């Protein structure tokens, strides 16, 4: 089974962001996962599809963004858990024991961290929040019924985010209280 690729374009202009999203969707057969304004006055575009199409669309997005381009990301073979966590449609296992979270300064680094964590250990991605209401920061929450899996996933992802200089904070909660867990699900 071929895993899809995803691409992200982040701009510091909402108007140019809308124009860029339109151009990206027209140039190749891609699915627009989401496109929206984030604080402080930036705009993100997230697409998915087959790698060649996503690459073409990303290239067009970079061209149209011009001087307004802030960041970009191309992630081939993305984990099948990433897009549902971004869209809020993740399937979460029962009997969750442990929860972890990684908070990043950038949207792209959070997506990369989420992909690494999902591939490193048997964890479910609860949510990937990309910039909305966070002043441009992002975070991922993940869980498992195995504390070791959460530790392994968080540690692998944090190692990469630290290399990018984008780590705000991370946490691992071995025995999460059911009331707190309920707020995350």
Explain the overall architecture.
There is one protein chain. By secondary structure, the chain is of the alpha+beta class. Helix 1 packs antiparallel against helix 2 and helix 4 (107-120) packs antiparallel against helix 5 (147-164). The two termini are 29 Å apart. The relative contact order is 0.17. It is elongated, with a radius of gyration of 16 Å. The strands form 2 sheets. The chain has a 4-stranded antiparallel β-sheet, sandwiched between helices. A 4-stranded antiparallel β-sheet has the order 6-7-5-8. It has helices spanning 14-27, 51-65, 82-87, 107-120, 147-164, 178-184; strands spanning 5-11, 31-38, 42-49, 69-75, 98-104, 124-130, 138-144, 167-173. It folds into 2 domains: 5-75, BMC (bacterial microcompartment) domain (Alpha-Beta Plaits); 82-184, 2-Layer Sandwich (Alpha-Beta Plaits), CATH 3.30.70.1710. It is built from 6 helices and 8 strands.
Summarize this structure as a short list of keywords or feature phrases.
185 residues; alpha+beta; Alpha-Beta Plaits; 2 domains; four-stranded antiparallel sheet; 8 strands; 40% helix; 31% strand; elongated
Number of strands: 8
- Domains (count): 2
Structural class: alpha+beta
Largest beta-sheet details: 4 strands, antiparallel
Classify the fold: give the CATH topology of the largest domain. Answer: Alpha-Beta Plaits
Q: pLDDT average, as an integer? A: 93
What's the shape? Answer: elongated
Strand line-up of the largest beta sheet: 2-3-1-4
Which architecture of the largest domain per CATH? 2-Layer Sandwich
Low-confidence blocks of residues: none
Number of helices: 6
Radius of gyration: 16 Å
Bin the strand percentage. 25-35%
Task: Please give the alpha-carbon distance between the first and last residues.
Answer: 29 Å
**CATH C-level of the largest domain:** Alpha Beta
The CATH superfamily label of the largest domain reads BMC (bacterial microcompartment) domain
Helix share bin:
40-55%
In N-to-C order, the SSE pattern is EHEEHEHEHEEHEH
């Amino acid at each position: 089974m071929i895993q899809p690729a995803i691409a992200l374009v982040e701009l510091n202009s909402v108007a140019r962001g809308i124009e860029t999203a339109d151009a990206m969707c027209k140039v190749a057969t891609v699915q627009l996962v989401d496109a929206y304004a984030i604080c402080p006055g930036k705009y993100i575009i997230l697409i998915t599809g087959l790698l060649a199409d996503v690459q073409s669309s990303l290239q067009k997005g970079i061209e149209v963004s011009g001087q307004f381009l802030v960041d970009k990301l191309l992630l081939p073979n993305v984990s099948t858990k990433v897009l549902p966590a971004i869209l809020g449609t993740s399937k979460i296992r029962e009997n969750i024991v442990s929860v972890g979270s990684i908070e990043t300064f950038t949207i792209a680094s959070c997506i990369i961290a989420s992909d690494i964590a999902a591939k490193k250990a048997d964890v479910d991605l609860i949510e990937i929040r990309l910039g909305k209401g966070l002043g441009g920061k992002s975070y991922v929450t993940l869980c498992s019924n195995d504390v070791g899996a959460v530790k392994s996933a968080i540690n692998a992802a944090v190692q990469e985010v630290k290399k990018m200089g984008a780590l705000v904070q991370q946490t691992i909660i071995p025995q999460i209280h059911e009331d707190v867990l309920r707020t995350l699900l």
